[in-house]
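Please produce the structure of this protein holding zinc ion.
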Amino acid sequence: MSNDLRVWIEPKSHSIEGHTAKCSLYFNDRIIWGPRHCHNNTVRLRDALNAADPRFRLDVSPKGKTIEGHTYAISVKAGDRLYLDRLSTHGHMLELCNAIEECLAAERRKVSQNTPNPVPELPPPSQAPRPSPPRHQPGPSETPPPVSSPHHPPTPPESPNSKASTRPSSRHGFEIAIICALRVEHDAVEAFLDEEFEIDGFSYGKAPGDYNAYTTGRIGSKPVVLAYMPNMGKAAAAVVSSQLHMSFTRLKVVFLVGICGAAPMDSRDRQTFLGDIMISTAVIQFDFGRQYADGFIRKNTLEDNLGRANPEIRSFLQKLEGKSTTKRLELKTLQYVTDLWTRDDEYVYPADDGNDDNLYSAEYRHKHQDSSFCSICAKCRLPNDPVCDIAKESSCAVLGCSAEHLVKRKARKFTGPCFHFGRFASGDSVMKCGIYRDKIVAKEKVIAFEMEGAGSWDSIPTVIMKGACDYADSHKNKAWQRYAAATAAAGMKAVMEEWRSSS
Ligand SMILES: [Zn+2]
Ligand SMILES: [Zn+2]
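Below is the modeled complex.
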C-alpha cells in the first residue's frame, strides 16, 4: 500500500441525528481506536475506508438509540480519488482521523527504514487536507489562521523569538496577572502555559503578609503570574488582588478569567451562545443597595459605584472591540481551543456529546415537570414558588424540561466562540432566575453575571474575561462549564497577544 490515505473532518451546519451504532477501527486486525458511538451512516465511512485502504477495517455494530448533534463532515481520499465526500458526522471522529494518521506515519517510518531509496514523503501540511476547526466558516475575504492537529502543529502566531524563555529576574518583572476562582477555571488557564518558571527549586518568593498561592510561567512570549482564589466571591477576589499587588508590584493588567452566566442578548442586540466570551467594559454591583417593601433600590451614587478602568485599560479595550481586532481574536481563539481539544478531550464542544445549547423562556422553571413525581415542584406555579432540592441539582433532561419552552433563535452564521463586550453585573450570589435576570439586563444594560469582578476591579486594573456556561437562569447544565472555561482561557491567550508592554 502507498500509505497516502487521508481522512479528515471539517465543520458543517449543526444537525440533530439519532445514533444507533457503535464502531471500532482496526489496522491489520489490531484495534487502534474505539469503540465509540456513531450514526448508522458510518457504514458509508466503513465502506469508503475499506475501498481506499483495506488494511483499515471499521466494525460497525448496533447499540441503543441516542440523539446527538452533528457539526462536522468527514471525507476519505487516497491518491487523487475521493472515496467519501463530506459525510455528516460527530466531532469525536477527529480522534479517528488522528488514529489513522498516526498509524500511517508509523508505516511510512517502517518503509523508509527498510528501503534503500526512501519513498517520497507526504506533501507538507500546508498542502495536505487536514482537520478543520468546527463551527466556523471563514468568509471569502478572510485568511484563516493555521489550525493545529497533533501532526500539524500550529504556526506560532507571535514573533519568531516568542518561544524563547523570558523568565523575569524578579517578581517586579511581571506586568500581567491572571486570577481564577474555580478549579475548572485555573485548569483551563494552566493548559495554555507554554512554560512554568518556579520548578526545580527556583522561587520568586512573596512579600510579607501575602498568603496567596501562585504559578508563574509564560504564555506565548509574555511572563504571567496566576493567582488562585480560596473560594468564590467578591470578598475573596478583593483579598487576593490586594495581596497579589503586594508581591508583584508592577502589574499593569489582571485578567479575571473563568465562567459566567450570560444575558441571552448582548448590548448590541446580538444573540449570545454558550461558550461565547464576555469581556467587561464596566462592572456594576447589581445586588448592592437596599430592599424596600415595594422593591430593591441599587445604590447608585458616585461613591457607591465602581470607578472607570484606568486610561490604559480603557484604550486597550477600545482596540479589542474594533471590528478587525475582534475578528482576529475570534479566529485565534477558535484555533487555540480546537488545539486544546486534540490534547485533552475533556474540553470538547459539549453539543457534540448530546448536551444541547438550550435557552428556555425566562418564566419556564427548572423543576420536576411531571407533577405526579414531586409534590413540591407540583405546587410551583408562580415565579417565587420553591422547587425541591433534588430539582436544583438535576439536569433538564432528568427533570423533563420541555423543548416546547425553548426560545426560538436564529441559527448563528458565525460558528466559533464570539466575543461580546459590555457591562458586567457582579453580585454576591449566583443569578439563577430568568425573570430577575431579564429585569437587571433591561435596567442596567449588562451582558453577563458573575461574582468576583467587583472585588478586584477597584484595587487593580482588571479585564474580566468569562466564558458563558449558562444563561443565568434556573436551567443549569454543568456539561458546559469545562468548554466555557476553555474558550475563556483560549480567548485570554489571544487577547494577551494584543497587549503591548510599555517597557
Ligand atoms: Zn421536585
Ligand atoms: Zn431545566
